[in-house]
Design goal:
This protein is mainly beta. A hairpin with a 2-residue loop joins strand 4 and strand 5.
């Protein structure tokens, strides 16, 4: 499922969502429908805050200027609650 569709679901919905993870120091991690081609990348399109993310375990994680991101789309599973994706639910 894409990020925009998942973010609009009712709380309690179990989902598997595909997008790009963006980790910016001092901010909550987010799942983005696309990454903008800036350096470091920024979130483009729809986004969902991620709750319970263990960033170091993500495959293909890249880093520049204090920002980490997945270069390829990943699929994360969890439960939607108030527009956030709670992982592992």
């Amino acid at each position: 499922m894409d990020v925009a569709t998942a973010a609009a679901l009712a709380s309690g919905s179990k989902v598997a969502v595909t997008g790009f993870v963006l980790l910016v120091s001092g901010q909550s991690p987010v799942l983005c429908s696309e990454l903008l081609e800036s350096m470091p990348p920024q979130c483009g399109g729809a986004r969902m805050e991620l709750v319970g993310l263990d960033g170091p375990d993500l495959p293909g994680l890249r880093e520049a200027v204090g920002v980490k991101w997945t270069a390829e789309a990943v699929t994360l599973s969890g439960v939607v609650h108030e527009g956030r994706l709670h992982l592992g639910g």
